[in-house]
Design a protein that fits this description.
single chain; six-stranded antiparallel β-sheet; 68 strands; 27% strand; disordered N terminus; disordered C terminus; transmembrane helix
Length: 1371
């Protein structure tokens, strides 16, 4: 039993050698006992338990306890199962039934449904379930009146006995002893050396873990040692998922059978069959699995083109699991209403894999455009890799014309290669013959000359006019040749993709007088006749794939009918019988076809295959076959789509044309599908990368709603689109189901909420297909065009379907649609959409769209938007409708809407501290600050300034000055934010404008009384007023005061304070301006995730701090740069300007999407400089080798101007050697100087000249925080308290320069300096101790700046993010 990953279990039952007429011993003793091993391998990560039965060559154990399985052997408590009450059992293991005249109690219905049929062939026309035949098979005969109950069934006393258990690296191996002969003999009796590999196994490698896993989701236990049976349970619920206690286990050479009861009747999958319902009918139904050229509408209960032995089961409680049997021989699967499932196969091994989900989509994940089709008619005489020059001579030119119009072309390839062409005239056959690359007859089988070519290849007859050979794709040389032929054919006919057909493989007229398409006049007739009296051609159990086709005339159906002979050989050395690998033919053809078409086209391309097997979905899609395009085929196609999505082949069904009466509806459906292609494309991407389904049943999204388990006339595209087609001709009403939650009609936007299982809709021939959008979804769409080549160039549309919480989400994957492996190589675009409350935004997860057409969102449609929306804000614009947006998807965006009549984007936040962790926006706090409080804003603040009587007004006339002009301003009646006795509003201001340069404008707000701190930096401006400026300053309002800065050349307004909010108090200054565009860059030092600022209510602080960039967003780091640049409107020249606020106090800047910029600072003046460019490089111009680094470690005790000679002896000599070699040396200096060292010159000189930062002698100084000169003490890297040089003092400048020169001349010949920790940094401020203070050095100390009542330490406004981090700052 292999357990691979904790979600999947596997069971494997194996036999011995390969099967064949000449490969097994004659005259086996059927009376003796023999042995079988059950190997249980436990790998528990995602996959689960692999159980396989094999013959055992080990002698029978003499240990009398060998038949008992203990807890220590299996790891689970085991019990012994008892036969059900009243069941019929045999009293011996002889192959005869016992009759008696004693009246037996009537079996219960459950007991009847547990019967495992011993004569399933009675469903054909040749075998009757007689008592004699039943006795011959060693089964029990008991007639019953219950319909469908078998009258001949297996005894539960027969089977296998446990004789021992051994632990293996991956699980366990259980030794089993046969307790009786099977119905067809040849039970596994002979010993062999390698039980795992001697018998045929499917050559399909699964990606399983190599080690036993932990914490499996399942529990495996043996429930009966005497008649071996086991159970698999789900750990979390105790639900039994598999239980073989129903009996019927048979392991013989050409008949392997296992039965299990199921946890529920909700079973899906298996194929490829025509199932009339998606949920299986368990009323005693049997289906074959054997790939065959069998159209879906021609025979009920038949197998079609492919084989998929995989099913899923809903257990209840929303849980689901799946089971896969890795076996490619002809097989059946049967159900009873118990519910019970029986597998029968005629070869290989029983190798099961169970997938534990627990949700339906998890199970499938674990398991694993408009184009024109060219059918076989274009071939010359139906020969592959040819063109009929008479009928289709201009086909290459036609294809090129279609491709120039954006169309795609697909041609067909059948595997059969005609053999009767003159040597040298048909390259495919010549090359295949040279390689001996065809399916071959066995070397030891005498074959008529008419049935083989010169190489021994099997001949058949399909479409070409002549006998054909069949390429053997299990041979590497054949695969390579096939790919080369595809590439060469593309040089002649430029197709885009390939459709491989007839690859079951199909052969016409096998075992008949002549193929149906053999020319009637071409005598003598010939057809392929497969050997008779051969166990491979006519196995003892023929499976339903053969007996379903028993003729009324008495002819037995054969496996080889409509295909090639079972005895033929395949593989590099003929190691496979076609008997074993028949159903793998299409699977083996697909990879070389896929490689060939990709190499030929150089693009992604695709392959469409008629015959498939598990694993085919990696290389090919599938269509649902050659149906009759009847109305009944519509509902069948839904089931086919759902099943193939379970099988990992998620191609959707293309709408058929059902006459002119539905033509308009079909056109609408096709146009709708074009609209939805981006959504579908994303679903297919998720199928490729995550194994999700594209088309899925309703219960996959709603697994807890059992009422949906049987719904198969509707389906979902992904999680979000519910499709309800009209499936009956002339229908006037459609009954349909709406799943849980809210759904919107795609066409009308009307909503319906809650599960509704019996809804009615009136329809006619012109009605649209029912289409509902799930609330909570965002569907990316695109304007349609005549084909995808053109539609992919169109704008996108977002369909936002809000749920009751006004939330929705979606995603878009996009690439060029052609290139190979774009996801793996990173050449794609991936974005996520999120709607929340009153907004929808796009975030970009990955963007590499070089070569793609420009991606633009042109329209947003919102379903469920609140009534009364008055404003919609899109990328900073106030728009009335969400169309013609032109939003480039190369950058993130946000759209939001509001019920407010005022423009939220102009609101000034009254409680910006709420961005931290210590302040909450409340109505009480809001009103205490004199502000407005209004909830329901889309994105803007709920507490904002009341601008009535707020700000300043002009006093008197303009006063001209030497450099420009001045306005005197007086505060209006309403107090400013944070006004208090300690922080009074400044009553009178001067607004000064200086025009001392053509390109540079200065404007400044200052206290009219003067005396406020200003940055001691002088800009190099002109000494006279300039009249020929690029700008104009215009006062637009005297009361309240507002002004604009306008570029003269374009009349574009660059600054506009008409948005209000001017505040000027002692410790809080606030000014805001409308910006000309959203193209804003700069400010720092902060982490910005895009060069262009996100203006959607974002804010950052400006306050230098020892703050690593890895500590998060919206923080300031080491430096402060209150400078930004803005590019102006494109229609006005796309000029640029920059603005500097010359203020060094703690401050922050924030944006709204108006766009509006707000500055807040807690000191100084508002001193702005605008640089007019006009080019970006001009703005920067106006605003203003190879090295080796030596870090602080080279200093003695990390003290400036020292060298640690013990760790860095000869450092100066080393530096000189580097310099001689052309290198340059940079050393580090931190500004702090240790204070507790004797004869440390830097400290002694700085202290003696009063050159350090000092405490205010009028203020309280915390304990041990100053020296005898009242210098402030801190703690950084040196092992002791430090002082901080005050570089605003000339004495400090002189001293620092002298120390640097002396250090260079006498100690270390460096070339440059790296100054660090100069925010300035201090460790542990306001904490118990610095992080690097030695733990053993007590008492602890750190600089404490929590001075009560001090407005410098506790300003009324603490600037952005101050409440988040106070570390590493000294005051």
């Amino acid at each position: 039993m292999d357990l691979d990953k904790s979600d999947i279990k596997m069971h494997r039952f194996e036999q011995s050698d390969v099967i064949g007429e000449n490969s097994r011993s004659k005259g086996m003793n059927r009376e003796r006992c023999f042995w079988v091993i059950l190997a249980i391998l436990l790998i528990a990560a995602v996959i689960g338990v692999s159980v396989y039965f094999t013959k055992n060559y080990v002698k029978k154990s003499d240990d009398p306890a060998a038949g008992s399985v203990t807890d220590s052997q299996v790891g689970k408590k085991t019990t012994t199962a008892q036969p059900p009450t009243g069941s019929n059992t045999q009293t011996s293991t002889q192959a005869t039934a016992t009759t008696t005249s004693v009246m037996k109690p009537k079996p219960s219905l459950e007991e009847l449904q547990r019967r495992v049929d011993c004569i399933p062939e009675y469903q054909g026309r040749q075998v009757k379930p007689t008592e004699e035949l039943c006795n011959n098979r060693g089964c029990i005969y008991d007639e019953t009146d219950e319909l469908g109950i078998p009258v001949c069934y297996f005894s539960q006393k027969k089977g296998y006995k446990v004789t021992g258990v051994t632990e293996t690296p991956l699980g366990y191996r259980v030794n089993l002893e046969n307790r009786g002969e099977g119905p067809f003999g040849d039970d596994w009796v002979e010993a062999f050396d390698d039980p795992v590999f001697k018998r045929y196994k499917v050559p399909l490698d699964l990606d399983l873990p190599k080690e036993k896993g932990d914490n499996p989701k399942y529990e495996f236990s043996i429930t009966n040692n005497d008649t071996f049976a086991f159970q698999i349970k789900r750990q979390s619920t105790g639900k039994v998922l598999w239980d073989t206690g129903v009996g019927g286990l048979v392991l013989s050479d050409q008949f392997l059978q296992v039965s299990t009861s199921l946890p529920s009747v909700h079973v899906y999958g298996f194929g490829e069959n025509l199932h009339r319902t998606f949920q299986h009918d368990l009323n005693h139904t049997t289906w074959p699995m054997f790939s065959r050229d069998q159209a879906p509408s021609h025979q009920a209960y038949s197998n079609l083109y492919g084989v998929h032995p995989f099913y899923t089961c809903m257990e209840g409680g929303g849980h689901s699991h799946g089971v896969f049997l890795l076996n490619s021989n002809a097989m059946d699967y049967s159900f009873t209403p118990l519910p019970m499932l029986t597998y029968r196969t005629i070869g290989g091994v029983l190798d099961f894999y169970m997938f534990l989900g627990p949700e339906p989509e998890n199970v499938v994940q674990q398991y694993t455009g408009d184009i024109q089709y060219a059918d076989i008619d274009h071939f010359d005489a139906n020969k592959d890799f040819t063109i009929d020059q008479d009928k289709f001579g201009t086909l290459p030119q036609y294809f090129q014309k279609l491709q120039a119009q954006g169309m795609r072309t697909v041609i067909i390839l059948d595997p059969a290669i005609i053999s009767n062409m003159t040597m040298g005239t048909y390259e495919p056959y010549d090359n295949l013959t040279a390689l001996r690359g065809s399916v071959m007859w066995p070397d030891d089988l005498k074959v008529a000359d008419a049935d083989t070519d010169s190489t021994g290849a099997l001949l058949g007859y399909v479409w070409p006019t002549g006998k054909s050979v069949f390429p053997d794709f299990f041979k590497k040389s054949t695969q390579d040749l096939w790919s080369r032929l595809i590439v060469k054919h593309h040089d002649t006919l430029p197709f885009d993709a390939l459709w491989i057909d007839m690859n079951e493989p199909a052969n016409f007229g096998t075992n008949e007088e002549r193929p149906w398409n053999w020319p009637e006049e071409a005598k003598p007739y010939w057809s392929l006749h497969c050997p008779t009296n051969n166990k491979l051609e006519d196995p003892p159990y023929r499976t339903k794939a053969a007996f379903l086709f028993d003729s009324e005339e008495g002819r037995d159906g054969r496996l080889s009918d409509k295909t090639i002979c079972m005895v033929s050989r395949q593989g590099e050395n003929g190691e496979y019988f076609h008997y074993d690998v028949h159903s793998l033919y299409g699977w083996s053809e697909t990879p070389p076809t896929f490689r060939g078409v990709r190499e030929a086209t150089g693009e992604r391309s695709f392959v469409l295959s008629r015959s498939t097997y598990p694993g085919s979905g990696k290389y090919a899609g599938h269509w649902t076959g050659d149906n009759d395009a009847a109305w009944s085929d519509l509902s069948a196609s839904i089931i086919g789509m759902l099943e193939f999505n379970l099988f990992g082949i998620p191609y959707d069904q293309d709408p058929g044309v059902f006459g002119p009466e539905v033509g308009e509806a079909s056109r609408v459906a096709m146009e709708t599908r074009y609209w939805l292609l981006p959504y579908l494309y994303t679903l297919f991407h998720n199928a490729h990368t995550e194994g999700k389904t594209v088309v899925r049943p309703l219960f996959h999204e709603f697994p807890n709603n059992e009422a949906l388990y049987g719904v198969d006339k509707q389906f979902l595209w992904g999680p979000s689109l519910l499709i309800t087609p009209i499936l009956e001709e002339g229908a006037t009403e459609v009954t349909y189901t709406i799943p849980d939650g809210k759904w919107y009609d795609f066409y009308t936007g009307e909503s319906v909420t809650g599960y509704k299982g019996d809804m009615k809709r009136v329809v006619d021939h012109s009605s649209n297909i029912g289409l509902h959008v799930r609330a909570g979804s965002i569907i990316p769409m695109q304007y349609p065009a005549t084909n995808t080549f053109y539609s992919r160039k169109n704008g996108f549309v977002l369909l936002v379907a809000l749920n009751d919480e006004h939330i929705a989400a979606g995603e878009l994957f996009w690439d060029d649609g052609n290139s190979v492996d774009t996801y793996e190589t990173g050449n794609y675009f991936l974005s996520y959409f999120m709607a929340k409350q009153n907004s929808v935004a796009m975030s970009i997860a990955h963007e590499n769209t070089a070569g793609l057409p420009s991606m633009v969102v042109d329209e947003v449609r919102v379903m469920g938007a609140p009534v009364g929306v008055t404003r919609v804000y899109c990328d900073g614009r106030d728009v009335l409708v969400l169309s013609d947006l032109g939003l480039p998807m190369s950058r993130e965006f946000k759209i939001y809407w509001s019920l407010e009549s005022e423009d939220e984007r102009q609101r000034h936040d009254c409680i910006p501290e709420a961005q931290g962790r210590g302040v909450e926006v409340t109505q009480t706090l809001c009103e205490a600050r004199g502000c407005k409080y209004k909830i329901g804003a889309s994105q803007g603040p709920t507490c904002y300034m009341d601008l009535n009587n707020y700000g300043y007004k002009v006093m008197g006339d303009r006063i001209d000055t030497q450099f420009g002009f001045t306005y005197q301003l007086e505060r209006k009646s309403k107090h400013g934010l944070f006004n208090s006795a300690l922080n009074p509003d400044i009553q009178k201001l001067n607004f000064t404008v200086e025009m001392r340069s053509r390109d540079v404008l200065r404007f400044k707000f200052d206290d009219a009384r003067g005396g406020r701190y200003e940055v001691p930096a002088t800009l190099n401006l002109g000494s006279n007023k300039v009249t020929d400026t690029r700008y104009e300053v215009k006062v637009t309002s005297n009361d309240p005061f507002a002004f604009q800065v306008i570029r003269k050349a374009t009349k574009e307004v660059l600054w506009d304070t008409g948005v209000g909010g001017l505040t000027f108090s002692n410790h809080f200054l606030h000014i805001a301006t409308r910006l000309p565009t959203r193209n804003v860059y700069g400010f720092g030092e902060n982490i910005h995730h895009t060069l262009r600022h996100d203006l959607n209510y974002k804010g950052w602080p400006l306050f230098s701090r020892d703050q690593p960039t890895s500590w998060g967003d919206y923080l300031n780091h080491y430096g402060v740069h209150p400078f930004y640049m803005c590019t102006e409107s494109q229609d006005k020249g796309h000029y640029s300007h920059g603005v500097l606020l010359l203020n060094s106090n703690a401050q922050d800047y924030s944006f709204t999407p108006l766009p509006m910029l707000t500055y807040r600072t807690i000191g100084g003046v508002l001193d702005f400089y605008m640089f007019l460019g006009p080019e970006p490089e001009n703005v920067v111009q106006q605003y203003t080798g190879d090295v080796q680094y030596a870090d602080i470690d080279h200093m003695a005790s990390q003290m400036d101007f020292t060298i640690d000679d013990s760790k860095f002896p000869g450092l100066d000599t080393y530096f000189k050697e580097l310099q001689a070699g052309g290198m340059h040396i940079i050393i580090i200096l931190d500004p702090t100087l240790i204070s507790n060292m004797t004869n440390y010159e830097p400290y002694d000189r700085m202290t003696s000249t009063n050159s350090n930062i000092r405490w205010d002698t009028n203020e309280y100084v915390p304990l041990d925080s100053k020296n005898n000169k009242s210098d402030l003490l801190g703690y950084v890297w040196p092992n002791g308290k430090v002082v901080f040089p005050d570089f605003f003092k000339n004495s400090t400048h002189q001293m620092w320069e002298e120390l640097i020169v002396k250090h260079h001349n006498t100690k270390l010949t460096f070339d440059g300096l790296w100054i660090d920790m100069n925010e300035p940094a201090n460790f542990g401020t306001n904490e118990e101790r610095p992080w690097n203070w030695p733990p053993e050095a007590k008492p602890y100390w750190s600089l404490n700046c929590t001075l009560a009542g001090n407005l410098y330490e506790h300003p009324p406004y603490r600037t952005s993010r101050f409440t988040i981090l106070k570390k590493y700052w000294f005051g």
